[in-house]
Give the backbone structure.
Amino acid sequence: MKTRKRMDGYRIMLNNVSHPHHPLRIFWFSALLTIALAGIVGYCDGIAGLWLFLILVVLEVTFSFDNAVVNSKVLADMSSLWQTIFLTVGIFIAVFVVRFILPVLIVMLAAEIGFAEVMQLALNEPEKYGEVLHRAAPMIDAFGGAFLVMIGMSYFMDREKDTHWISGLEKSMSMAGRFEHLKVFIMMLTAILLYFTVDRAYRSTVLVASVLGVALHVGLELFGSMFEKDRHAITQKTGLAAFSSFMYLEVLDASFSFDGVIGAFAVTSSVLLIIAGLGAGAVWVRSLTVYLLRTGTLAKYRYLEHGAHWAIMALGIMMMVKLYRVELPEWMTGSLGLAFIGTAIYSSILEKPGEDD
């Protein structure tokens, strides 16, 4: 009798694990990759290196948790093919291109040196590489800050949005959305304000970078709308419409990673260790995106998406604040995003299903 019960228990457990929504089916690759990288780091750099690696993984996941929420929302409107592309090709772009090649290109631009010289700095003089990357921080913060704030404003300044978390404020922002170009006007004023108030040494850089951040967001929205004939009739995006969403997600990921890459140099000067830690963290974020998508978490917690966009706006504002040499601790930056997410989930649980706004 006991043997039969035990066998039934094993059978139930196997059925649960085989379910596509089971966490083991979703997070196994992230866990396996992290363990493998941890083993390599521990073998090469010992316990100290392993500890730094784990800190970097947590730093990346903390910074990008709200990114995963937005990713899952956008992915839900894309075809299964493009979802697969995002979760395969997108991982390569997130780990190798965004967290390695992109910082190299930024250093090339900031220091006005060639690719080979930057690679030499990255591999043989990581402290100097980190210093050059820090000098490029105003350009990164202005671009990333403007892009992230535009994401938040576009979400809340939507006149068709009828669910509100912070009721009074979000309703007012939604009503303001009837003025089509208001958010662009606000961001252009912000760029001008930044130009006249930041240090003279990088005024022009900040102005150009912030305008580019706004222009890129507007351009991606425009590109997507060109191939989306009727947003209410289309259930899943394909072709160029899906490609525009894919590019939007990759730029969003890059905007989040900028701050993480710079912050990582406060933890260690080893470029290879940073790539390993942030790369593993990025894969965890992609797995978390899949989990949120498959389990329908956004539908279960009606304010989760709101919390994620407030977190994105907060991160964008903090990036702009850094232009005035106000350096916030990395734990504070990441914790603020988690605070918005946690509060939004708590509010969703407290509210009765079907309750009006």
Observations:
- The two ends are 54 Å apart (CA to CA).
- The chain has one domain: 29-350.
- Residues 99 and 235 are 33 Å apart (CA to CA).
- Residues 7-19, 230-234 have pLDDT under 50 and may be disordered.
